[in-house]
Amino acid sequence: MYELKNVFKRYRQGDATINAVDGVDLSIPAGEFLVIEGASGSGKTTLLQLLGGLDRPTEGTVTFEDHDLERLGERQLADLRLRAFGFVFQQFNLIPTLTAVENVEAALAPLRMKPAARREKASARLEEVGLGARAAHLPSQLSGGEQQRVAIARALANDPRVILADEPTGNLDTRNGEEIVNLLARLSREHGQTVILVTHDRTVTGFATRALHMRDGVFVNGSRTNS
Amino acid sequence: MFFLTYIRNELRRRAGRTVLTVLGLALGVGLVAAITSVSNGLDEAQRDVLNPLASVGTDLMVTRPVATATPSPAAGTPEEGPGGFGFGRFGGARAAISAEDQAALIKENQSVITDLSKLGDAGDKFVHTYFLPATQLTFPAEQAADVAKIEGVAAVGTGLTLLAVHQEGTVPEIVAEIQTGGETITVEQNVSPPTTAERKVMEECFDKQRKSGKSPRDAFGECMPERLLRFRGSVNVPERTIRQALNPPETDITSETYTIAGVDLAKPDLGLITESQLTAGKFLSANGTAEGVLSDAYAQRQGIAVGHTLDLNGTKITVVGFAKPPLGGQAADVYIPLDTLQKLSARKGRVNVLLVRAADAGTVKGLSADIASAFPGAQVTSAEDVAARVSGSLVDAAGLADRLGTMLSTVLLIAAFLIASLLTLSSVSKRVRELGTLKAIGWSKGLVVRQVVGESLAQGALGGIIGIGLGIVTALAIAAFAPPLQASAASTTSTGAIFGLGQVSTAATDTIALRAPIDASLLMLAFGLALLGGLVSGAVGALRAARLRPADALREIG
Predict the structure, then answer these.
(1) CB pairs under 8 A between A and B
(2) d(CA A203, CA A37)
(3) Mean pLDDT of all residues in chain A?
(4) Residues of A with Cβ-Cβ distance to B546 under 8 angstroms
């Protein structure tokens, strides 16, 4: 599904150049639940953004299903993000003025759908994450765990082939965090979706089919593959 | 449309920002609408007031005022009769008041220098009106034909504007009582001695007296001739009262002055006043010799209603209507048919104003010069000249509205747009994560921009609607509470205190209520401006949003 070859991502910060991703080679097969674990600043979030087409590598190639992401135009990248990728963020990133179901609908908005069909699909996704009853609530009226469920429902809205989760448990307590990871694992199993999750929480690696440890922009020892 | 749901939610759930932006825009365009409407109202009022001649179908007005130019050696000798234009015969500047003018003035105004005793016996009540052209001399009406011959003149009308001095009171006892007499007069005279015959008679008498024994003293008294007894004595003049005629008389005569104009009904569309100035009643009919139209202001001042009868030296004039005379031109208080006024003032065939209509509006200026040079001594007044004479708060306000209004409107709009733009920009900045998230979940740049612009446009539309309401309310309030404006123009009928009649203020003043008309186009303008404000602020925000890279947007969350 993914093929990364000698990928670099450098930022300039003042006079210094930061190698956030420092020559990574990685192959991700479809259906994998990949956890990339690393400390803050290890380059894991940057790697996730490269995988999600939110950013372009400074060097090297990121290939997704025969698409060289680096060569795709803005519009094609936006279309990939809409149809192929689903994002889950540490801060949930829900639109504060929209209700739970409207937030899920936001992911369907660019598609030409009838409002009723869109609402129905969004409600079904909320039911899937167990929040059917909270559809009309604003994010501010939901708990952190509930908000992240809404975010997952939004990420799943369009039946993406890959779910990209950036520290999805970072703002949750242990119990809620576990529930969220469980949910992602279950959905991945049920829908055959590829999940790529980056975290600094080692306990999350237990759910992974493969776990990679990242430090200073490269994968280091301690990576393992679960069966 | 999700797009609309999202906009509605954004505006509703970020009410503070929405209210601030909408009110900013509303205030801006509302005040601009109000200023524009007031400015339009002033312009309208000014058009009415400043184009008085056009309203009576006239481009130029020709009068024959008493020349007041400085004396010049070129000043010629008059060859025409008094008050004529001296058509083509002489030119150049005239003396301060030329001998000719002086003579004409006195002749024209002499009817006032009259013997009051002709009005009736002493003690009788009298009412009389004198008609004076004051300083605007009359000339034969035929001169209109000469003016009509000038190239570019389409039509010439005539008019006669006179000062009417209405006097009433008691015919004075034109005498004074003087008391004389009561003095004592002493006369002294030498008496001639007695003649021989007298002496003989005296001697005989003395003898006789002596013989009868009377004293010499008694005899003397007896025998002196009568003539010699009277030579000395006192005269006592009896007291008596002499009645003597006096000049000038003193009486209870009250004098009231107003202006009266003769309207040439042969040319009803080219007169000192036309039917279009009528505000009440009807206009002078073509054959109604005894009809009159009063100016609104005069009728109001005098408390005269339509149907009232004016008595002008025995001629009954029925007031048939009221009119609003054009400001600055030959505004008069009373308008009657020209023939009637000529007859009343004993000026048959004479007029003192020509109303000229040009064949082509573009040639008015040249025509004015042509007439002035062809008729030395004539004063040619154009609508432009009249407009220049108009002054007062209306002109001030209109000038203010033109200059300040435009500036104020621009400043207000810029301020409103700036507020809206800054608020949108700040909103976009605060929503960087939100907009980045939308990009991350598959929204294209176009969709994000549409969302930001849509929100701003919606705010613009709301601001426009509220602004329209605000503008209407402000305009109504201005119209209701603003003080009325005045426009004054010195009338060309002027009189001095030359004849001791007191000064008549002939400066016509129009009071104009400040209107603030609001029409559909103005409302559209206000709404359009608010939308533009929304669009501008939306574009500013959208530009910022479009440049947003999702990775950067998400990184900002830390």
Answers:
(1) 96
(2) 10
(3) 89
(4) none
- Residue type at B553 in one-letter notation: A
Please tell me the predicted confidence (pLDDT) of residue A191: 84
Cβ-based interface (< 8 Å): residues of A facing B? 45-46, 49, 52, 54-55, 74-75, 78-79, 81-83, 85-87, 89-91, 93, 95-98, 102, 105-110, 115, 118, 138, 154-155, 158, 166
Segment holding B457, helix H or strand E:
helix B445-481
Intervals of chain B under pLDDT 50? 68-84, 86-96, 112-113, 492-505, 557-558
CA distance B524 to B519: 9
Give pLDDT tens digits for A9-54: 998 888 888 888 998 999 999 989 999 998 888 888 899 999 998 8
Residue B329: name the closest of B31, B3, B58 by CA: B58
Rounded to whole angstroms, how far apart are CA atoms A153 and A127?
9
DSSP A160-180: -SEEEEESTTTTS-HHHHHHH
Split at pLDDT 50, 70, 90, the class of A82 is very high
Dmax over CA atoms of chain A, in Å, equals 54
Residue B511: how many CB atoms within 10 A of its CB? Answer: 14
B 12-31: CB under 8 A from A: 12-14
B557 interfaces chain A, CB cutoff of 8 Å: yes
Using alpha carbons, list the distances in angstroms from residue A12 to A48, A49, A51, A133: 19, 17, 21, 47
B6 to chain A, any CB pair closer than 8 A? The answer is yes
Query: How far, in Å, CA of B424 to CA of B418, rounded?
Result: 10
Q: Which residue reads 């000469």 in tokens?
A: B146
Helices B2-13 and B445-481 cross at an angle (nearest 10°) of 50
One-letter amino acid for residue B165 of the chain: V
Min Cα separation B15/chain A (Å): 11
Confidence at residue A116, expressed as pLDDT on a 0 to 100 scale: 93
B4 touches chain A (CB under 8 A): no
CB A50 within 8 A of CB A56: yes
- Three-state DSSP state, A27: strand
Say whether B13 and A90 touch across the interface (CB within 8 A): no
Interface predicted TM-score (ipTM) of this complex, two decimals: 0.91
Claim: this prediction has a pTM higher than 0.90: no
Task: Report the residue of B437, B438, B547 to disrupt the A interface, i.e. the one with the largest count of A CBs within 10 Å.
Answer: B437
d(CA A121, CA B413): 46
Q: What is the pLDDT of residues A106-156, one digit of tens each?
A: 999 999 889 999 999 999 999 988 898 999 999 999 999 899 999 999 998
Integer Cα distance of B310 and B292 in angstroms: 9
H helix intervals, B305-430: 338-344, 364-374, 383-389, 393-400, 406-430
Q: Which residue of B has its CA nearest to A99?
A: B9
Indicate the helix (H) or strand (E) that contains A61.
Answer: strand A59-64
Bridge partners of A27?
Answer: A3
Q: What pLDDT, on the 0 to 100 scale, is given for residue B550? A: 75
Indicate the Cα dihedral angle B2, B5, B11, B13, nearest 10°.
-110
pLDDT tens, B299-349? 888 888 888 888 888 888 889 999 887 765 667 888 999 888 888 888 888
Separation of alpha carbons B121 and B117, rounded Å: 7
The DSSP string of B235-263 is EEPPPEEEEEE-SS-----EEEEEEEEEE
In whole angstroms, give the CA distance from residue B405 to residue B399: 9
* Omega before B225 within 30 of 0, i.e. cis: no
Contact state of B445 with A155 under an 8 Å Cβ cutoff? no
pLDDT at A95: 92
User: What pLDDT, on a 0 to 100 scale, did the predictor assign at position A141?
Assistant: 95
* Measured CA angle at A10 (ends A5, A15), to 5 deg: 160
